Automatic annotation (TrEMBL):
UniProt GO MF annotations: fatty acyl-CoA hydrolase activity
Coiled coil start-end: none
Residues spanning the signal sequence: none
Protein name: Thioesterase family protein
Upper classification of the organism: Bacteria, Pseudomonadati, Pseudomonadota, Alphaproteobacteria, Hyphomicrobiales
Cited Pfam families: 4HBT_2
Amino acid sequence: MNLPAPFIAPAEQIEKGWIDYNGHLNMAYYNVLFDRCADHAFETIGLTPDYVKERGLSFYVAEIHVCYLRELHLGHSTAATFHLLDFDEKRMHAYSELRHADGWVAATCEALYLHIDAAGPKVAPMPEPMLEKVRAMYEAHRVLDRPERVGRSIKIAKT
C-alpha cells in the first residue's frame, strides 16, 4: 500500500456562508475542514459509509485541540493534512494542519479518535484488515518529524 506522508485531503474553497461577522472564517468551519480531511484519510483505511452501515462500527472524536493561527477569508483555497502519530487496536492519535493554497498554516488540530461499536455505543477493537491498514499508515507517517504543536495544553502563563 502506497500511502502519502502526511495524507493530504483534496483542496477546499472557503464558502460565503462560513464567514462570520468579523469578516473571516468562523471557527466552526475550521473544524469542518479538519473533519472532512479525516474522512478522506479514514477512507484509505476502510472507514466508509458502507463500513459504518454494514458493520455498525465507526470512529468518534474523543478529544480535539485546535489552534487558530491565521485568518482565512472568502475565496481562499485550503488543503488539510492528516498525520497519524500513534494508534492501538481501539484508538488513533492524529495531527492535522489546514494550509492556505500559498502554503502558510492557518490552523492546526490534534485529535484522539476512538473506534466505536454503535450498538453500545462503546469502544471496540478495529477488525484486523482495518488495523493492518492503520499500521501501514503509521509506518508511512512515523518518519515525519513530530509536530511542534503536539501535546499543547490551554493555560495562562504566569510571569
